[in-house]
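FIELD: query
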Amino acid sequence: MHLVGIDEARLGAAVDELGDDNAFSSVADVTDEDAVARSVAAGVERYGRFDVVVSNAGISGEVAPIVEYPSEVFSRTLAVHVLGAFHVLKHTIPHITDGGSVIITSSVVGLIGPPGVAAYVAAKHAQVGLMRTAAKELAPRRIRVNTMHPGPTSTPFQDDIEMRATQLPRDEAAQAFDQMIPLGRHTTPEEIAHGMLYLAADESAMVTSHRLSIDGGMSG
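FIELD: result
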């Protein structure tokens, strides 16, 4: 496994947990094309190819109505999610095994349009468009390209969004979001991981250009 991110300490801790024989890491900001290219080259040097590529970088942006939304934050949010995913695809595609899998982490808001998070919504919808084009381009090589759409998931990233959106303490904010989910609770990271494993595995060999939602019915 080749882990790429911006937090060198957390990357190192993950490699330690997985073991040096099973993983290594590179530091890169996905908005920096040269950094992505260097990281991909390091992965190819280590492993020779990529069987599965997961584009997962993201930031939440601001919580504000469109007329008050800071343009620089809007641009940065799209850069991380959309330009970042583009850079990852552009530089990994030549090294993906025929029959491999590409997964782009979108969000439930890539399927719906809640107020107050214009940049995040726009970025997550844009990732779906990028996925669809990549899926068609890579179909002759039997490489599947799909987007994953988690609903509210119990993580610090989501906690921050919920508290800013509701102006409530964490537990109360989570309860408010639970009320928006037909199945009545947040998704767990483990449930998202199971979906990722399906899209990565040969069992999904005929699944491409698909939006897999694990959101408790929120986008239905």
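FIELD: remark
The longest strand covers residues 96-105.
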